[in-house]
Amino acid sequence: MSELAQSALPGARYEGFVTVTEAGLRGMITLRGDLSAMAGAVKDATGCAVPALRRVEASDGKAVAWMSPDELLILCDYADAPGLAASLARALEGQFATVANVSDARAVFTLTGAQTGDALAKLCPVDFGTLRTGDIRRTRAAQVAAAIWVSGEGEMTLVCFRSVAQYMFDLLSRAAAPGSEPRLYA
Amino acid sequence: MLLLTCPCCGVTAEETEFAPGGEAHLKRFGPGSSDADYESYMFNRKNPRGVHFERWRHAYGCGKWFLAARCTMTLEVFGTYRAQTVEPPAEIVAAIKAKRPDWEGFA
Amino acid sequence: MSHRLATGGRLIDRARDVKFTFNGKHMKGHAGDTLAASLLANGQTLLGRSFKYHRPRGIVASGAEEPNALVGLGKGDRYEPNQRVTTTEVFDGLSAETQNHWPSLDFDLLAVNSLVPQFLTAGFYYKTFLRPRAFWKHVYEPIIRKSAGLGKAPAHDARDPDRYEQLYAFCDVLVIGGGIAGLQAALSAAEAGARVALWEQTAHWGGRAPVDGVTIDGQDADTWIAATVARLEGMDNVHLRLRCMGAGLHDHGYVLGYERVSDHAPNIDAPRHRLWRMRAGQIVTATGAIERPLSFAGNDLPGVMLASAVRDYVVNYAVAPGQSVVVVTNNDDAYRTAIALRRAGIGVPAVVDARAEANGPLVAEARAAGITVLTGKGIRKVKGGRRVTGVEICRIDSKGTAFTEVFDCDAVAMSGGWSPVVHLWSHCGGKLLWDDAHHFFRPDANRPPLGVDGTGFVTVCGAANGDLGAVLHGAHDAGVVAAKATGATGNAPTPATDNAPDMVPMDAVWMMPRNAEYDLRMKMWLDYQNDVKVSDVQLAAREGYQSVEHTKRYTTLGMATDQGKLSNINGLAILSDALGQPIPATGTTTFRPPYTPISIGAIAGEATGSTFQPLRRSPLQDWHEQNGADPEPVGHWRRPYTFLRAGEDRHKAVNREVTNARTNIGLLDASTLGKILVSGPDAGRFMDMLYTNMMSNLKPGKCRYGLMCNENGFLMDDGVVARLSEDAFLVHTTSGGADHVHGWMEDWLQCEWWDWKVHTVNLTEQYAQIAVVGPKARQLLERLGGMNVSADALKFMEWTDGKLGGFDARVFRISFSGELSFEIAVPASQGRAFWNKLLAEGADLGVMPYGTEALHILRAEKGFIMIGDETDGTVIPQDLNLNWAISKKKDDFLGKRGMEREAMIHPDRWKLVGLETLDGSVLPHGALAVTGGKNANKQAETEGRVTSTYYSATLKRGIAMALVRFGPDRMGEVLEFAGPNDARIKARIVDPVLYDKEGAKQNV
């Protein structure tokens, strides 16, 4: 029934000094366990190595993000997530590891433009001047949790819980409103 | 507002990214324990003027609990360390001793 | 007439006129003016009335320290009271109104207070309104409220239309203050390699140096300032902000900055204010100094101004504060004002210098310019009504009984010396020392505020450090030291040299004349805004106030919106003198942030409107909102309380939903319920610790209701656990409790049982969960097809997963209503489609969504407890007759030890019962059962309380649950409950299970 599936805010988009787009459905799998012991299974499933501390490894449409010392987040196509989760679970059988499909629990926003850090600096207590492409930083955006991945040059990917997608979109739109550029980073 | 460094993910962040959890290194007293032990576990908390050990969770970050050694007077942070220990590790004790020679040690 | 000088004015653009209104009167200024400068240029010297005596008041200062000239700015939704004209940049269309007068600024009836100034002396309110007691509420308070208060609050229905925001920023070195010291400190820190931010609260760089005639490397200060700003702007590691005030300095290098982004240009599309939340490694405060007034009789009359302010208006704005200005001083600096006035062609009848001798270079320059200098003299009193008309002079060491000279003048420029702005240094614990030579407090570099590593993180330079002469080399050192402390290793070249004239030290003159008699002292203002005079502080001292903090509160000295920026040191000196002790022994009051008031809008930041707080939306929220949902807050969720249809009130809608669920099919959006995966080899062992009942023996495919307690034994959460596999459980929690329970699990796993092999994953939002409830529920599911949900295939308290109507579904056969019921979880993204399908397929079966109130009633009819209703954090499972859910086989579980305490096993504890009112009415929420007797405190004795109460559409009467003393042993007994207006409502104790006790309806 995934053809009936709807992301939290389908098509939501705001064009300010940063463009904010709801990225639609993304496959996401939480993987918990000993990260080094899972390296083989992760490589087989995603083609990616286990990322270093607060880094994201990406390869061919899939990505693996470091979330905590015993947790990874795998990003893939929405439709692929159940199958990928099942094959990971099989590969990790016998290990103390947990695989859970969390694709539907999240909302994803893409921020594009030269001043993404300037917009997010209004919401997050993070020094965006220190983040490099491929970094991920879990933090707070105003009053909710967010994971921010510097997914490319002039692009950030923000993941939050699905239930607060509207709040997050409103926050980001407000932060990116023309005329309010703080010109802190760019 | 404090700055704390999470020893689990290495992030140094402001206090609003963390959630406080009260005194560290409490020993749990469960069924069969005396009233006095249970009372000490549940209700009696240290409130020192000076060196103190406390629990923090990187609630908006990696989600991990960790422990901090901190001076309640000056707010100096002597160090943070992983929560999986029943007492402060030697390097934390040494860091405190270096700054507070009169400190009587962890008890 | 215009008071604008024909030439000069370094900050104004004469080519650009700005039109504004003042009390409705049209006025004109120039671009670059502050409102204060424009008003003075228009000859407007009377700007308000004082707080207590309604005395006429005018502008005293030229900056943030202004105590008098506060106005209401803007109109309607944008009206804002108590704005300082000295920090307001004038713009086209600005509208200002004076405040604190009645009926008008020029004619104020309440000025009668001033005729008997001894009437409102220190402690007047405390002393006068004490008795009779009843008068306070009905007589005194209404009168005081009418006459007191500073400015008017905006209209109650006004809504601020402007945008505000906050900004998190980081730097190595933050320099606060953009005078020449701050510019140099920033430059040196940046050259040393640090990442630097520099804030200046006004609209201009350079501070006082250009006005004071400072030269730098032989050039005028403006030249150096322009060059330095240009250099800083060209550096990648420097961030500059004008109109950004360092508002507060906090722990570990946290600094709040208040940027007034568009106050000066309200028509540009930008936020109005921005609150900077800066985290700096090191901070350099270069916040300058504030000139002190002198205490002489009539020093509050419009036209009496700080000497530095007078020359600011002349030099910066080409405005003459008067045509003839007497300068009165105890130091050399004020001679700069005399010289500037003379240079601008303004009359200076005399400089009155309290010192026995005056012979510094500036004094010599003034004398050479032909200015009369009187030494050893002071002002006896200022003459005039609504503005200065002259001054009487007397010998400084006299009692002031007679004058020695009289001068006609329309303004007085006074200087009592300077006070370094030590506020920011002091906010976070930096200590001060008293400088005997200059008679001020300045930062004690040996006792700075301490940072995260226990070392100092603030350095001070320039006038803020008490350096009233050359500052650039000291500022350079401060910048370099700060940069190095953050790890910078570069070299900063030697700075330029500023040339400041030598100055002879000031004389401490705290009262003028030194032995002034009472009738003079009671006209000497210390705190202009709060109307505190020399005589008030002296009275407080006589009445026994010794602590400066107590005296402050008793006299209200320094408690106005200016927080005593002008009055503190003078007041301290008077108090110290009255107490016969040196000033450092008296000490200062505490400096607290913010430095000057900041807007509520900036503090709120983004937290307004739709972003006030995060409202969590269920995957079905859109449908709810389109179908009459009446929202109820549950944590940050807004669940439908009921779905209102046309013509229905809540009560009617709820009854319809209850009846339908019992006769047809009800649908409940249960997506908000917590869903936490607990997995790993030790999951069963962990579950046994979390729950009071046994969970490890639950078979895969089965469900079990369980209770969670905290370590006190008090009920914390409840819900149904499904065992997914040998190693995995799915824990359902209450809607409000999901995050807490997840955090609770992680706490125990990370901090207590870290060697147990258990993972948790919060899957709450992964699923849309829908309860399909009612006698026809199975029929609907069978229509969807794909899954065998027959009574044999899916028994009560079992779960299964597979395809249902084509959806990936996990179906739990559980019931919180007493009806045949299935809770179906589908991926959240498919929730809306699944919901639509249920509605469509079940239309002819009478499918109908219900809200949380129907949910509550359905469960109450069945006697099921609800966390938060039957529990309040002090209730143990035994109180709710849930002993069956407390394992006796387990050695340990969270809360087990707590339940063993004496008070928990006491037979007197109130226990759960059902209630039915004798008259069928609905008991009030929380109603107490009263015995008719009195307790030890002579209050009505109680023996129980209502925990849940509803109208039952099924039973057609009021039903309730209550905790009652010995309740379960008192079945059939009638209790009296207290209602509103002393009503007593009779209710009979009954079994809480009021509907289908044998469970026939759910087991089909």
Automatic annotation (TrEMBL), chain A:
It comes from the Bacteria. Transmembrane segments: none annotated. This is Sarcosine oxidase subunit gamma. InterPro entries: SoxG, TrmE/GcvT-like. It holds the Pfam family SoxG.
Automatic annotation (TrEMBL), chain B:
Pfam families: SoxD. This is Sarcosine oxidase subunit delta.
TrEMBL record, chain C:
Residues 911-996 form the Aminomethyltransferase C-terminal domain. Residues 523-605 form the SoxA A3 domain. The keyword Oxidoreductase applies. Keywords: Oxidoreductase. The keyword Oxidoreductase applies. It comes from the Bacteria. Residues 620-890 form the GCVT N-terminal domain. InterPro entries: 2Fe-2S-bd_N (IPR042204), FAD/NAD-bd_sf (IPR036188), FAD/NAD-binding_dom (IPR023753), GcvT/YgfZ/DmdA (IPR028896), GcvT/YgfZ_C (IPR029043), GcvT_C (IPR013977), GCVT_N (IPR006222), Sarcosine_oxidase_asu (IPR006277). Residues 172-424 form the FAD/NAD(P)-binding domain. Belongs to the GcvT family. This is Sarcosine oxidase subunit alpha family protein.
